[in-house]
């Protein structure tokens, strides 16, 4: 089983989470099926929570949680997108005990609006 870390946006709010089934989790965040984070269900307006970025292929839940924790250190969706790029292109780790980020062979999916930020990374287009 692989895990993903994702960044959602709704108006000027952002949410970072992790899961092993992104599309189910996304439907939960938007209230289409039961479950979901309290933050997104309380902050749902007429606008859906839309994915901006998915980092895929974490081999363990622990590795995905380490990435999620690190990305949550920044506030605001744009700062989080830029922070993700900085970390993915560095020789850094998500935490002191995690593997080096580049060694994890992660796959990055990003919407067209933010693809220019990830120009030095092999990304795939995020469709929804």
TrEMBL record:
Species of origin: viral metagenome
A Pfam family recorded for this sequence: GIY-YIG
Designated name of the protein: GIY-YIG domain-containing protein
Residue ranges that the Swiss-Prot or TrEMBL entry lists as coiled coil: none
Domain GIY-YIG intervals: 1-83
């Amino acid at each position: 089983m692989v895990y993903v870390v994702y960044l959602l946006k709704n108006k000027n709010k952002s949410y970072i989470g992790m899961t092993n089934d992104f599309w189910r989790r996304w439907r939960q965040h938007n209230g289409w099926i039961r479950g979901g984070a309290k933050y997104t269900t309380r902050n749902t307006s007429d606008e859906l929570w839309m994915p901006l970025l998915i980092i895929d292929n974490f081999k363990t839940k622990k590795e995905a949680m380490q990435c999620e924790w690190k990305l949550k250190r920044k506030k605001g969706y744009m700062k989080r997108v830029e922070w993700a790029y900085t970390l993915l292109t560095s020789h850094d780790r998500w935490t002191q005990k995690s593997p080096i980020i580049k060694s994890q062979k992660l796959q990055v999916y990003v919407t067209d609006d933010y693809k220019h930020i990830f120009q030095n990374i092999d990304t795939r287009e995020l469709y929804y």
